[in-house]
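Researcher: Let's do a round of design. I'm pasting the structure tokens now; please hold your answer until I've finished.
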């Protein structure tokens, strides 16, 4: 293969045109203390471990000569771009984060950011969700974003309240059974 068709190096990140999920306009980047610590830990791991290891592999691969058919070099450079993109994303998210410690919530009988809510759906199914920041979402674990429709319906409700959730299938009523916060 001719070197004319292989990009050896680039000052530009062609991956930068991939959209990074941003918060909707007018929303703040609320995040729990634990969530912010997890973002910082991931950033440090990328900076202190993964990036130096990848740079080492790329340097070694580059010293082997012909880079056009050097898989370690090609994939190493690609991985390095991915790591750098994630570092930029994490840095922006950490800089814009508004840390909220749910354990310091004084009004514990009402649903606010960081609350764990057990509620009953119209069909009789019980669900438990914890309201967290957009960077902490884990639906299988019951962690939903504070800007999610269910969370927005639950916010400011109290135990025993029935709130309306508008869904594509129509309105649904949710009965709040329990509200709790971490100790």
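Researcher: That's everything. Go ahead.
Model: Designed sequence:
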């Amino acid at each position: 293969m001719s070197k004319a068709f292989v990009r050896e190096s680039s000052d530009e990140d062609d991956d930068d045109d991939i959209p990074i999920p941003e918060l909707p306009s007018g929303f703040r980047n609320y995040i729990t203390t634990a969530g912010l610590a997890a973002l910082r830990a991931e950033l440090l791991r990328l900076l202190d471990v993964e990036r130096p290891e990848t740079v080492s592999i790329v340097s070694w691969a580059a010293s082997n000569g012909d880079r056009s058919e050097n898989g370690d070099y090609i994939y190493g450079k690609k991985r390095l771009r991915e790591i750098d993109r994630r570092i930029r994303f994490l840095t922006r998210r950490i800089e814009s984060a508004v840390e909220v410690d749910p354990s310091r919530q004084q009004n514990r009988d009402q649903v606010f950011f960081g609350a764990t809510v057990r509620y009953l759906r119209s069909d009789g199914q019980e669900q438990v969700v914890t309201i967290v920041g957009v960077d902490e979402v884990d639906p299988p674990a019951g962690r939903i974003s504070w800007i999610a429709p269910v969370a927005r319906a639950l916010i400011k409700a109290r135990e025993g309240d029935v709130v309306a959730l508008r869904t594509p299938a129509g309105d649904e009523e949710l009965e709040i059974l329990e509200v709790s916060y971490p100790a």
